[in-house]
UniProtKB/TrEMBL annotation:
Enzyme Commission code: 3.5.4.4
Family the entry assigns: Belongs to the metallo-dependent hydrolases superfamily. Adenosine and AMP deaminases family.
SUPFAM superfamilies, per database record: Metallo-dependent hydrolases
Species: Cellulomonas alba
Presence of the UniProt keyword Metal-binding in the record: yes
Segment forming the signal sequence: none
Name of the protein: Adenosine deaminase
Cofactor: Zn(2+)
An example molecular function term from Gene Ontology annotations: hydrolase activity
Name of the top EC class for this enzyme: hydrolase
Classification via Gene3D superfamilies: Metal-dependent hydrolases (3.20.20.140)
InterPro entries for this protein: A/AMP_deam_AS, A_deaminase_dom, Ado/ade_deaminase, Metal_Hydrolase
Length: 348
């Protein structure tokens, strides 16, 4: 068994606030004299039922964490630490997802908010060697016209280099908002060459996946795991080569599946879906990127060859430049070619 923290991979599903280290959140709360709910600081991952009350609890904690991010320095620190943590786990490409709306009041508006994140991503790339791109995400809870404003802003910064916007997302409770009403925002993003990367098929089943596929024409789906519940929908996802950003620890924490082995990872891969593992919100789920590959190994019996294929799929589904992608793919080959330490020890 090779070290999964050394396996080169791309991290395509990580939220800005949710990426925060617990210690950093504690620092920010102290600095801004805010009291945090105990659940945010204790050692246990969040565990809620997959109903509206469960989501409400998740959202309440998430909002409490987000309320601690109140300055340009806070925002820069989060991006930098996310890149550092990704670097330590073998990620060579991070596409961090941010909805700048909540931070805008503290830094003089939505435009500076996004500029800060992009600049921090550029600096973090230089400092850590992880190529950091940004996904601008709108929220289902807000007016679809706000999503259009965000899409126009995202479009202005489109590119595949470090600190550029690579995609446009849609997040928050799938049960809220009308998916079709967000189509114009996604059309603006698509015209600018941005990837369409909305959430879908996590809390709601295959019908929601179809809804999102039809109206938002995703290149990648945030989660999309529940496509597995309808062979026809899964076939469409595979045919249209929509990558699925599968986040097993998140699914278990949010009660979508009872345990990691219930996440239909094998089914999706076997059906031919492109799967990129992601951590989603490590702040709440207490599980970072390499741990998702550990789950594939421990709970689903993925061999090193299969884990390398998962890493390759994540790199290919990323919007990194061609040169970054070929460098990372060569790294995956090298990881696999290196002798397996466990086997060497047995042979010796
Ligand atoms: Zn997410």
């Amino acid at each position: 068994m090779r070290d999964l923290a050394l396996l080169p991979k791309a991290h395509l599903h990580l939220h800005f606030t949710g990426s925060m280290r617990v210690a950093t959140l504690a620092d920010l709360a102290a600095e801004h004299r805010l009291r945090l709910p105990d659940a945010l600081l204790d050692a246990n991952p969040l565990q809620v039922p997959a109903d509206e009350r469960g989501w409400f609890r998740f959202q309440r904690l998430y909002d409490a964490a987000r309320a601690c991010v109140r300055s340009e320095a806070d925002m820069r620190r989060i991006v930098d630490e996310a890149a550092q943590d990704d670097a330590a786990e073998g990620s060579g490409r991070l596409e961090i997802q941010v909805d700048p709306t909540s931070y805008a009041p503290f830094v003089g508006g939505i435009t500076p908010a996004i500029e800060i994140v992009l600049d921090a991503a550029r600096l973090a790339t230089a400092r850590t060697g992880v190529d950091v791109g940004v996904i601008v995400a709108a929220s289902r809870m807000r007016h679809p016209l706000e999503a259009r404003t965000l899409a126009r802003l995202a479009a202005r910064h489109a590119g595949d280099g470090p600190g550029e916007v690579v995609g446009f997302g849609l997040s928050n409770d799938e049960r809220r908002g009308e998916t079709s009403e967000f189509a114009p925002a996604f059309a603006i993003a698509r015209r600018a060459g941005l990837a369409s990367v909305p959430h879908g098929g996590e809390l709601l089943g295959p019908a929601h996946v179809e809804d999102v596929v039809q109206h938002l024409r995703p290149d990648r789906l945030g989660h999309g795991v529940r496509s597995a519940e309808d062979p026809r929908v899964l076939e469409r996802v595979v045919e249209e080569q929509i990558a699925l950003e599968v986040c097993p620890a998140s699914n278990v924490s949010l009660g979508v599946y009872a345990s990691a082995s219930d996440v239909p990872l094998r089914e999706l891969v076997q059906a031919g879906a492109r799967v990129a593992l992601g951590a989603d919100d490590p702040l709440l789920f207490r599980s970072r990127l390499a741990a998702q590959y550990e789950i594939a190994r421990a709970a689903h019996g993925f061999t090193d060859d299969e884990l390398a294929d998962l890493a390759r799929a994540s790199i290919r589904a990323s919007r990194a430049s061609e040169s970054v992608r070929s460098r990372l793919l060569a790294g995956v080959d090298a990881w696999l070619a290196a002798p397996d330490a466990a086997e060497v020890a047995t042979a010796g």
